[in-house]
Write a structure and sequence with these properties.
Low-confidence stretches: 14-20
Structural class: mainly beta
Radius of gyration: 15 Å
Distance between the termini: 39 Å
Strand content: over 45%
Order of helices and strands: HEEEEEEEEEH
Strand order of the largest sheet: 1-2-3-4-6-7-8-9
Number of helices: 2
Helix content: 10-25%
């Protein structure tokens, strides 16, 4: 699954034409869904993510984190790319690095974990977005144990200027 996510992100970055969305603001994204949806240890997760409007070659920074119902936590920072498929549909591949705390949840092998994700969202007139995201969390084999996990969330992204 992680190979599919990685290949999809690379293909989108190389072959799709990112739209110049200079009018898009900073976003605060609220996420809810399932952690480890590809395994028998699936549990609920809630997260929040800040996506900056600062872009260099269409690529922008983001930071975020989530907590699971079993007490696992993950905080991360990385990069994303918005690819507009028309006026309303936004495809967003992203990659980040972060720190994972197991809590009472799944052992992912260690603290350092990499996250790759692909999201598809509907963009409303007020620039808010509603979408789904599939993400993969793994340590890329730097520890002896590397089970990885796939996560599926529903995301609502609000322009920061609408919140304050």
């Amino acid at each position: 699954m992680k190979k599919i996510l990685s290949l999809a992100a690379v293909a989108v970055a190389l072959f799709a034409a990112p739209a110049a969305a200079e009018d898009d603001p900073d976003f605060l994204s609220f996420q809810a869904g399932g952690f480890d949806v590809n395994d028998t240890e699936t549990t609920a997760m809630l997260g929040v993510e800040y996506r900056s409007d600062f872009k260099e070659f269409y690529i922008a920074p983001m930071v975020g984190g989530f907590v699971t119902a079993e007490g696992s936590v993950y905080g991360y920072g990385g990069l994303y790319l918005d690819v507009f498929l028309g006026r309303r549909i936004v495809l967003r591949p992203s990659f980040s690095v972060g720190a994972y705390g197991e809590g009472g949840g799944k052992d992912l092998g260690g603290v350092l974990e990499l996250r790759s994700a692909i999201a598809l969202a509907w963009r409303f007139d007020d620039r808010s977005r509603l979408g789904i995201e599939l993400s993969h969390l793994s340590n890329a084999g730097i520890y002896d144990n590397n089970p990885g996990t796939e996560n599926l969330t529903l995301n609502y992204s609000v322009p920061l200027d609408q919140l304050f």
